[in-house]
Amino acid sequence: MALDPSTILILTTALAAAAALYLAVEWRSVREQSLLLWSAGFAVITVGCVLALLRSSGFLLIGIWFANGLLIGAHWLFLAGVARFTDMRLSRAWTLLALVWLAMLLLPGGPWWSKLMFVTQSLLIGGISLHASFLLRPHGVSLSVGAVQLRYVLLLHGLFYCAKAASIVALDTFVDLASFRGEVIQISLVEGAMAIMLIALSMTGTERHRREERIEQLAARDPLTALYNRRALEQRAPGLLEQASPHNPGALLLIDIDNFKQVNDLHGHSAGDKLLVALSEMICNTLPQGAVAARLGGDEFVILLRGASSESVVTLGNALRGMFGQMAQQAFATPKAVTLSVGGTLFERPPASLSALLELGDAALYASKREGRNSVRMVRGA
Fold first, then answer.
1. Is the CB of residue 233 less than 8 Å from the CB of residue 292?
2. Helical segments of the chain, H only
3. Please, which of 17, 53, 274, 289 could form a disulfide with 46 given CB 3.0 to 4.6 Å?
4. Global confidence as pTM
5. Cα 335 from chain centre
6. Contact 180, 9 (CB under 8 A)
């Protein structure tokens, strides 16, 4: 079977339909709106290709420019999907592109009409693709392989369409969309088939990577407070602990809520959960740069600091103690005050392990509990 323009268009139709179906199945699994928009874009391309094939076979169901104009709608859906994926908002100017195309459809016919429509269509698709590529720039964070690939495929795709528009104007290139004749048409069909395949693969890889990242994040976070859990702390602690030196001491704070059981017994477990969430938010808001916080379990929290001193540790512990005590007193009445006990330890060289450091923090916390609670106590580290 020769790869003539009609055959390439049939292959393009099949590729677009397969991409639309696959992305729709992926969307049903993860419910990411970007997948749905991308799937809709490929579905629109499928419809446009089918209409073009029918017209080339003598079934003049609809104007050729409407069928080809669907490409603009498809690329706009791709752009909307990228905007959704990157959490960007599209300006209204991009939503007005369809009006530009509709205005072109109202222009009177003439020998220049087909060329003008083709140039306008190419520029619109090129501009949309280039803007989608621009939205996928790193923004200060590393991109997944799929996102990088999608960015550059859209960049090359957009540049191709801009070059196609320029060649039609500058070289007076022959264009006959109705019968798929002309070098520009044939090259465009080949590029379109390749672009569909690469864009679909890139989109799938991009969302799969994001899904894996989210699963990894969920596995590392405490479901109630969104702080790191113990497993995640054990993975991240070694890098911070190894930085300890006499000139750059590290510190550990172990935090426990005093009389927490009274809140659960008198006001219910939902009240206890609110206290835990409130404390985690206080910790996040007061956490110095480069520090790590985690919920060890129950009402016990831990903070790892670098570049610390005894004074800064006590100051941080007292700040948390003061904020939490005031909040708990106003929120829930209990026979005994609901406060914080904090145990801290400073270390000037890397400890043997996180467990050994936690034992020192636990000793300091026990001293705080033994001496009346609602206080900050320090013990000497290794």
1. yes
2. 5-30, 33-56, 64-85, 92-95, 97-105, 113-135, 145-170, 183-220, 230-241, 260-267, 269-286, 310-331, 354-370
3. 17
4. 0.58
5. 46
6. yes
